[in-house]
Structure prediction request, 436 residues.
Amino acid sequence: MAHDVPFDTMPSLDGDSLWRRLEQVVDIGNRFAGTPGESQCREHLLSEFDAAGLANVRAEPFPFLGYEPRGASCEVVSDTLALRCAPLQYSADAVADGEAIYLGASRPEDVAALESRGVELAGKVVVAHSFMPWLVAPALAEKNIAALVNVTETGDGLIPNFLVSFYPNGLDAPWDGRVQSVPGVTIEKEQSRELLSLMSTRSVRIRVEHRAEYAEGTSANVVGEIRGSELPDERVVIGAHYDTQLEGVGAADNGTGIAALLEIAERWRELQPRRTIVFCAFGVEELASWGSYNYCRQHVAELNGTRGMINLDALGLPLPGTRVAVADAEMAPFAVESAGRAGYEIEDEIDGSAYAWSDHNPFIDAGVPAAWLWRFPPQHPFYHSAGDVLRYVNAERMLDVATASAYVGFRMAQAPELGLGRSRPTKRFVDLRPPA
Ligand SMILES: [Zn+2]
Prediction:
């Protein structure tokens, strides 16, 4: 069967150029929301979008609830043992102590197993493993726990930075529900073994202190486009976040996605696509996708004509996790088929509307089919820590997934008939749908 938009009609990405773009982003340094590195990266993006010949290049400002750590500590009271820790972002600016209780991976079934044995979580300091603490913290806070101690598997004495609240929505002051009611920290791997050993022998009391300042900040999305030649009012969004977590240069997360976004824009400069292609570099993803949510809020009128979105986030992870398509039900078959034509065989699908993860979520909420090609679980030894540096980026895998992602976008922009309806979320986090 003839393919609607053959893969070899897409201008290909250049691996060397992609790597150079990654180096340029990494050279800027840390790009955490509200820092000079973040603004410097925005300037870099504006000039690169201009250099790629994109039309209508602009920065679109939005407000967000800024986070500034002011110190965190975690102490085993009975043994006066201080554990090395990092603050859990968007946890309460508070101190609390209580009896420690181990909750495994703190999945709903772990909670149910404990409760079925008559164990109360209220007033306890919960010690648990999770690389997505924002998915578990709100439910634990509702059970009136005293504090949360997140256990990291990250090696080399590094502690990854995480947040504990993606939702509820609170996109404007007073930011309802953004800050959890309990304080939290993440503790270092070696010391977590010591702590769990102590906890296995007797009852242990833990004191957790988390100090932070929460204040309104302003960031901006950087946007540019290639106008469609036949259907200019139909849009396809290609997006990647440019901020990093609190520490490190964010080489994989998300220098790689930004490098891919810029490389695609440059290679497609001669293209006269059927539909308009919108290139979006989102701000403040790491503190809960503020940029992409605000993009959807600021473009409500356009969203009805926005046919699809592809997200570029944390490409080129060093260890070979399963190749997954994270997408809503409408987009999933299209993304899987497109990736396969580009030589990226999807091994598993994850419902992109079930978890609040990255910048595809707001588009799905807004009714725009969206996908993120990824490897799962995120196999990076130093994920979200100062160890996310260039030497752990796999250049070949970055090019593979960037190419496959680009083709999903290319096909959406070029196909005469798309066969994509509105997104069908199984769970809507924020209702961003434009009026019908
Ligand atoms: Zn990311």
Observations:
- The radius of gyration is 22 Å.
- The longest strand covers residues 55-76.
- The pocket of zinc ion is lined by residues 241, 253-254, 285, 313-314 (CB under 6 Å).
